[in-house]
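Lay summary. Proteins are chains of building blocks that fold into shapes, and those shapes determine what they do. In this project we predict the shape from the chain. Here is one chain we studied, written as its sequence of building blocks.
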Amino acid sequence: MRFTAVCLVVFVGIAAATVASAQGTPPATDLYHVHFTKSAPGQAAAHAKSLMTPDKTSPMPDHFVVLRHQEGDDWDYVVIQHLGPKAEVTAGGAPPTDPTRGLVAWHNDTFTTGPSWSQFTKEMGIGGAPGQVYIVGVHRAVAGHREQLLQSLGTTGAAGKIQTGNVLLQHVEGSDWTFATITRYNSWQDFASDRAAASSAGDATAGGWADIRQHSAFHRDTIADRIHPAK
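And here is the predicted shape, written in a compact code that computers can read:
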């Protein structure tokens, strides 16, 4: 997919963002672009097709995933694009005549840091069995609680008997959230079992319901499936 050029030049590097990794969380070595978007009425299928089309002008055109909303927040799709250790956004000339604009009701964009692409694809189950389920969450930290929230989000709770994949992305520039989390389940059955175990684990569990809410000023969670890559 192709993102609309902005009207100023921005250079983003890992060295420009001072980020800390929670215990057990892979180091944030690479940049990612997170694109939440909602389709215009009647345009969801065409919008999905446009989002799944690689932008051949990108240095790594195939380094992205597209997740589709099932239950939760108001967006229809989220595209997470790997940019490598640095990225440059340059100003465009006259706005292009882009037929895909009519497919979109709204979108928002955020630059984040996260793990290497190889680690990301491993955690997201790229190349694995079909039928995987994803929980996409965004959190904004309570003032002065950024590190505590990072620690809580990076902690596997007592319900960790179910095998999951986990990615934590840290805000660099863009939306009003501090962290984005993506949890992958191998099946709907695994998702249900994990949620049942979490509900009975107790409020005081590290990384659990009450622990996170001590440090998160707001959050939004969405159940999604993956439409790209197909496998």
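What the prediction tells us: Residues 4-21 have pLDDT under 50 and may be disordered.
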